[in-house]
Write a structure and sequence with these properties.
Blueprint (H helix, E strand, L loop, with lengths): L1 E8 L9 E9 L5 E12 L5 E10 L1 H15 L9 H18 L4 E9 L1 H8 L1 H18 L5 E6 L2 E7 L6 H12 L4 E3 L2 E3 L2 E8 L7 H17 L5 E3 L2 H20 L5 E9 L6 E12 L3 E3 L1 H11 L2 H31 L1
Parallel strand pairs: 10-11
Antiparallel strand pairs: 1-2, 2-3, 3-4, 5-7, 5-10, 6-7, 8-9, 12-13, 13-14
Helix pairs in contact: 3-4, 7-8
Length: 341
């Protein structure tokens, strides 16, 4: 039974071309399909008119299956079977084109990142971590409509494309439903695992030209949700992007601040409430930026902790304080000796 045809070369018997090639499916008696490759050559008479064909039939089912598997693997996540970044961006691009065509914001992107997923991997092992990701993907899929897209970007990052929204606020309702559902435990073998997620939301807008930009802003909003307490969602706005750019620039400057001698240590005395005497000193770190001026520790210490720069900075502060203490001790002794003379 001829089911479908896929012409790869034209058959033009009346012209100069005499060869043809065609792939098609055949329904067998066992109700399964086999792919067949047919190649042929038109045999012509003395007047150049084709009067018969000579060719061959080849079963190419395994090759077609391998091609289909390769195509599937190229656009799907190996662990969960969900669409991957490439397929998600393609669907997001199509949603953007529809939104511009009809001039309305009818979709949203939700960027979801699990909170403390590393703790699960470190304490229960990567096998349980993988099982959790699979179970989570199934649970999230059940919360979405068939017109929506759930994809895994890698690690514990998932992203959703919610289409045909009746109201932009609906994306927030979806996030709340996800948060509520995640309060239920995941039963993985003999383990009951609880997990939460931080979600960043970007409402579809005609201001965007590239799907990658929407994904970037959803990621920024997600980090905003994570930094304000986790297990919540945050809507993206342009101020978030500006703060993210500023933060990135600040991180780059902080990485070279030590080498440029921009960090300084100041001291404040520690007094005894009983005697009123000085019992020690507290070292205070300050950053004198060449452009921004004095930057508050509240602005750069959390950044240093997050990026790991706090370790070399901490070692430098300890070394600097010890050197200055040693210098003060020498000056004190020299002044004391001069006074006695």
């Amino acid at each position: 039974m001829l089911r479908s045809l896929n012409w790869t070369y034209p058959i033009i018997f009346a012209g100069l071309t005499s060869h043809f090639q065609i792939e098609y499916r055949i329904l067998t008696k066992r109700d399964d399909y086999r792919w067949v490759l047919t190649r042929g050559l038109a045999i012509r008479d003395s007047d150049g008119v084709p009067y018969r064909m000579a060719g061959s039939l080849s079963d190419v089912t395994e090759r077609k299956r391998a091609e289909q598997q390769m195509l599937h693997d190229a656009f799907h996540d190996a662990l969960t079977g969900l669409p991957n970044r490439a397929l998600f961006l393609d669907r997001l691009q199509r949603a953007m084109e529809r939104s511009k065509r009809y001039e309305k914001e009818d979709f949203a992107v939700l960027f979801l990142d699990l909170d403390r997923f590393k703790v699960v991997n470190d304490s229960l092992g990567h096998q349980i971590g993988d099982q959790l990701l699979i179970a989570l993907s199934e649970r999230l899929s059940n919360l979405l409509r068939s017109s929506d897209t759930l994809a895994r970007l890698g690690g514990d990052e998932f992203v959703m494309l919610i289409e045909w929204l009746g109201d932009p606020i609906d994306s927030a309702l979806v996030s709340e439903r996800i948060q509520e559902d995640l309060k239920q435990s995941f039963e993985l073998g003999n383990q009951s695992v609880f997990i939460s997620a931080s979600i960043g939301i970007v409402s579809g807008s005609t201001d965007y030209e590239r799907p990658e930009d929407i994904l970037r802003d959803a990621d920024i909003a997600m980090y905003r949700a994570k930094s304000t307490g986790k297990a919540r969602y945050a809507m993206f706005d342009k101020d978030l992007r500006e703060r993210a750019i500023t933060r990135l620039e600040l991180e780059g400057d902080l990485r070279v601040a030590l080498g440029r001698n921009e960090l300084k240590v100041f001291y404040q005395p520690v007094l005894s409430l009983t005697t009123g005497m000085i019992t020690g000193f507290e070292a205070l770190l300050r950053w004198f930026h060449p452009v921004r001026g004095l930057i508050s520790p509240d602005d750069f210490i959390p950044l240093a902790e997050e990026t790991g720069l706090i370790l070399p900075i901490g070692r430098w502060v300890l070394k600097e304080a010890c050197c200055q203490l040693s210098a003060c001790s020498r000056n004190f002794l020299m002044n004391l000796l001069d006074h006695e003379r």
